[in-house]
Amino acid sequence: GESVGLHLPTLSVQEGDNSIINCAYSNSASDYFIWYKQESGKGPQFIIDIRSNMDKRQGQRVTVLLNKTVKHLSLQIAATQPGDSAVYFCAEKEETSGSRLTFGEGTQLTVNP
Amino acid sequence: KAGVTQTPRYLIKTRGQQVTLSCSPISGHRSVSWYQQTPGQGLQFLFEYFSETQRNKGNFPGRFSGRQFSNSRSEMNVSTLELGDSALYLCASSLEQGRSDEQFFGPGTRLTVL
């Protein structure tokens, strides 16, 4: 069967390494997915989004992968930097549900210099 | 362009009191959503307002209420505070409800109930 990355509450990487953060979502009707970054003392900050008609989307140093078959989302950060240290959340939404987001459990990413 | 602002940033209340939190969305944004963030439950949706109307509501008791004004500013109120209401309350705004456009979050109001 296909391997699916597990969600980890914490992830520690070395500066310059690539990071992969995983998320499982629950609602098969969700058609829009977002990754947020939350730094200490701040609100979540948008990183990248993807619609359900896509399976991959790339941004600057970040890539989001969507596997609808197993309801799995991942965020890949290339060349991780100390400034990437934060809690990362995935969120899902149905386009018919207005702006209501359902958040997954966060992953605390720590980048060691 | 100014971001989403929330006031106050910090609040300390005692059980049984009530509290009102305020959110000013980004200029031009018509949708405002509220979320509660706690270590145990994570980020949970409270409600969403669009054009002064509540369009969505999460699974919170009736002690939690909100409203939106004609200038899109929003307030949420929690009555008869309980210890478990201690949390970071986040407000998010977006341009138009029902579309997959970006939501911008404010810094939150940290509420502590003693």
Describe the fold and architecture:
The complex is a heterodimer of chains A (113) and B (114). Chain A is an all-beta fold and 113 residues long. Helices cover 0% and strands 50% of the residues of chain A. In chain A, a hairpin with a 3-residue loop joins strand 5 (56-58) and strand 6. The model of chain A has no long low-confidence stretch (mean pLDDT 91). In chain A, the strands form two sheets. In chain A, strands 1, 3, 4, 8, 9 and 10 form a six-stranded mixed beta sheet that branches. A four-stranded antiparallel beta sheet of chain A has the order 2-7-6-5, with no helix packed on it. Chain B has strands at 5-7, 10-13, 19-24, 31-38, 42-50, 53-57, 64-68, 74-78, 87-94, 104-105, 109-113. In chain B, strand 5 and strand 6 form a beta hairpin. By secondary structure, chain B is mainly β. The mean pLDDT of chain B is 94. In chain B, the strands form two sheets. In chain B, strands 2, 4, 5, 6, 9, 10 and 11 form a seven-stranded mixed beta sheet that branches. Chain B is built from no helices and eleven strands. The A-B interface holds A 31-32, 34, 36, 41-46, 49, 51, 89, 91, 93, 95-106 and B 4, 31, 33, 35, 42-45, 48, 50, 55-56, 58, 90, 92, 94, 97-100, 102-108.
